[in-house]
User: Fold these one by one.
Assistant:
Number 1:
Amino acid sequence: MSDQPTEQPLPYGRQWVDDDDVAAVAEVVGSDWLTTGPAVEAFEEALAQFVGARYGVAVSSGTAALHAAMHAVGVGPGDEVIVPAMTFVGTANAIVFEGGRPVFADVTADDLLVDPASVEHRITARTKGIVAVDYAGQPCDYGSLEEIAARHGLPVIADGCHALGAELNGDPVGTLVALTAFSFHPVKHITTAEGGMVVTDDEEMAGRMRRFRNHGISRDFRERATEGSWEYEMVELGYNYRLSDVHCALGLSQLKKLPGWLERRRELARRYDEALAGVDGVEPLRTRPGVEHAYHLYVVRLDDPGRRQAVYEHMRGRGIGVNVHYLPVHLHEFHTRTFGTGPGLCPVAENAYERILSLPMFPAMADTAVDRVAEALEEALG
Ligand SMILES: *Cc1c(COP(=O)(O)O)cnc(C)c1O
């Protein structure tokens, strides 16, 4: 697995599941509790502890985690929530699920993190919260964002789906704001196949999100079984966003390997930095001072956006799974149709979109694969 032959296709990201993971899943799948059982709590506690937060609420995806967070801060019809344009669609959709309107903020050109000045510019009397996205695995400028949010009495919610294990000035993502959402999709840092979690220090918000993931019902099945009672009450509209014990067993097993995988991602990034330093026409995104990067993605910007398509095709032709993260959300058809967004709203994100490429980055990737990617990129640009 660690030595990729040159001709083998190289994806941009890939999970790493070993025999221990399979054994952990097998044990739980043969146990009494397939869902709402002890593995859920164990995974929640372990992940919360890893990031230094008090509570974890496991849900069925990263998008469900963002949705639960929007619910927890009370987003409702007519509310606006500020969200960076440069993100996965799920970040903005979570706002729409609760009847809110995503208001897109622009990013800074050299790191594609949300620009606090643009956020402040978008605040109105209807603003209910600010969502920040730790793009590629680098924490945003939470100092500035929290300062702006505090002045306007708004919560900041972190979409940390790229940034499990990242730090800002020594503080882990998961402790920087009131609510942080993570995803355990196979391309992310650890996987549960599908899954997500919100971490928080706020007991009341954690309780609200637990209820939300279980149809809005005040007590779950295991609590009722423990109490010997059949009674339950649905006190608000919720969803079935539960993450099963089978998924959580995989997550718990994967979490043990996370520190080593983060180290490996950082090593690969250093190798990319060195290999690309001598290549004209391409530049990696900037890492800010005080940041311990988690490198979900390794993103480069081409000087000439006119060459992006050809570079993309050349790399793909050589079996190298480059990708583009992301088409700015406000340019997606649903959003333009529903909210009247379009080109010109976030010019920095729109310009960046024309020139970015995500290069392969996953812990099982070999050093030689980095060299192969750098060579192919040099060839494509030569
Ligand atoms: C992966 C991702 C999500 C959504 O996670 P899913 O588990 O796929 O629902 C949300 N935001 C960002 C930035 C992501 O990368």
Note: Residues 61-63, 87-88, 90-91, 133, 159, 161-162, 183, 185, 196 surround pyridoxal-5'-phosphate (CB under 6 Å).
Number 2:
Amino acid sequence: MPFHHLPRRSLGFFPTPIVELPRLSQSLGGPRILIKRDDQTGLALGGNKTRKLEFLIADALHQNCDCVITAGAAQSNHCRQTAAAAAMVGLECHLVLGGTPPEQANGNLLLDEVLGATIHWTGADRKGEQLNAIASQLQAQDHHPYVIPYGGSNALGAVGFVAAMAELQQQLQAMEQSVDAIVFASSSGGTQAGLTVGQSLLAMDVELIGIRIDKAEDEQLSYGDQLAELATSTARMLQSDRQFHPTDFRVETAYLGAGYGVVGELERSAITRLAQSEGILLDPVYSGRAMGGLLDLIRRGQFNPQQTILFWHTGGQPALFAPQFSLKETSSFSG
Ligand SMILES: *Cc1c(COP(=O)(O)O)cnc(C)c1O
């Protein structure tokens, strides 16, 4: 495999399971739907960031750093998994979080505290705008911080999803199964860029469909440009000079609703539908929105009933317990 020369620290349970969603498929009149359970990676309630962190944490250890620092929203799943990974290998963890300290921590933030992370609140800066400044302060205090960017989405982090694509290819071969499309939540881009590089290097014939979760109004680069840059640098890290272009990525932007982390009918009905048809929990910010997007694509006839679609569950369920994402907007609780 093209990534075997890079140091990797085992942090979770892989391969994650793939199961079928027969009751959901049937209620939709097809297509066949499989789910890949990256919510079950096993690192402090799991999620897709575990895959990136296996490479990032190994690099932090390799560089003899004494702490890691990363950033995100108050309910960041990436920050919670980073705090757990740091604890696991005996590094301190600093988290740069958007917002102000709440009276009572809940969801992912509660777990950040339980996992022993030091939290730096940065008000309106939700995407790590102050990450490097705070890392410099730590350096001035004689720390050796390893800086992990927002979402863990640099080339080394994205390698985790190249490895994920190799894992999927092996599983599908063993199952004698092929899939026509893979649908997943796409936010900081490491997941989509890594999957795309993996697909290309492993010559897998499958369409990748990212469901966009948040869109910055002040984006300097379009998301397609960001993905192309990240994928090209990820390939380079794997000694491939393959160039990627914005047209290499399919990103659905129709499901942004009222913005990042605003739970609407799309998320609410997707979450209750999967819970009540298959007993599987999605999260309100990412996988709920991505499943809402998939259900809408199916409704609009984007797949034929003979096809097989794989939904990549990226985790995030601790946010179900954060009141700001309450699913109980309407009085009825049925999907
Ligand atoms: C971070 C995250 C994503 C998005 O992955 P990116 O690599 O940032 O695009 C999707 N789902 C969940 C639950 C996440 O925490």
Note: The pocket of pyridoxal-5'-phosphate is lined by residues 47-49, 77-78, 151, 153, 185-192, 283, 286-287, 314-316 (CB under 6 Å).
